[in-house]
Amino acid sequence: MNSKNFSIQNLSLILQFNFFLIKYMKPTLFVLAAGMGSRYGGLKQLDGLGPNGETIMDYSIYDAIKAGFGKIVFVIRSSFEKDFKTVVIDKFKDLIDTEIVFQEISNVPEGSTYNPEREKPWGTNHAVLMGKDAIKEPFAVINADDFYGQESFSILADFLRGVEGKQNEYCMIGYRVGNTLSESGAVSRGVCVVDDKDLLVNVVERTHIVERSGTIFYLDENGQEVVIPKNTPVSMNMWGFTPDYFDYSESYFKEFLANFGQELKSEFYIPLAVNNLIVEGRATCKVLDTPSKWFGVTYAEDRSQVVLKINELVRKGIYPEKLYK
After folding, report:
1. Are the C-beta atoms of 59 and 51 separated by less than 8 Å?
2. CATH number at residue 16
3. Does 70 reside within a domain?
4. Is residue 218 a part of any domain in this protein?
5. Angle at 37 between CA 32 and CA 39, to 5 degrees
6. Looking at residue 40, what is its pLDDT?
7. In angstroms, what is the C-alpha Rg of the chain?
């Protein structure tokens, strides 16, 4: 065999191996479940909404397993660890690897200080930081109490398999604003500004978004109604990262605490860290379109509508009547 043929065969084997890694690499799903659900009146993450008492998290994890995620990491408060293990972890232990990490106010970098009267942890990106020692592969971040839809998990898993071994290439699932509205009234959404390559430029918080007679409006800074197209992408806190994101976040969190650590209600959000990385040119964030419809429970009165929507998905055969037997 001559060296040319040998080199071609080696290249072919390398390409096949890389294709195998991309196709079968299993990303991790990181579920933010530390919020206490004060507006809802209890631990809404553990509220049974499906036909057999399934939680919204149950549907997300079902969708994630189906999409090819290989591990679930939950971030919770240690105060409800026992209930969480009984209601959530036990049902998945034979289906997928699971791990719990904890978010507490005191989980801050060494040398950082904060107001001792503070009562709540530091927000969504602080919660993400709690996964640093548990996650070493590309990972997705979702809220425990949001319903994201099967297509979104498949889209996200495909992206994460494609960035295995890479750095600084992140993504966000961009929901079409028309698929995220509430039947109970106006909502606030993070409206995404993207460039011609679908890369995130920034996220602009828009308040009082409503639909009337088929047209969607938001209120601008002057209280004026502005029309927004139904397909405009908005952030519903469904992200994809590679593990290098943890180091960036820790560095930003130290700066955040130095500036805002003495405030009682300051929060370290994911979009804040992502926006810093984009502005500084350190990373990109691809906005991935999804046809999925988002829904969730913010207030207690939202519960009945969520139950109806889940039952309709079961009736259509998108989900089995009993997710986990």
Report:
1. no
2. 3.90.550.10
3. yes
4. no
5. 140
6. 43
7. 21
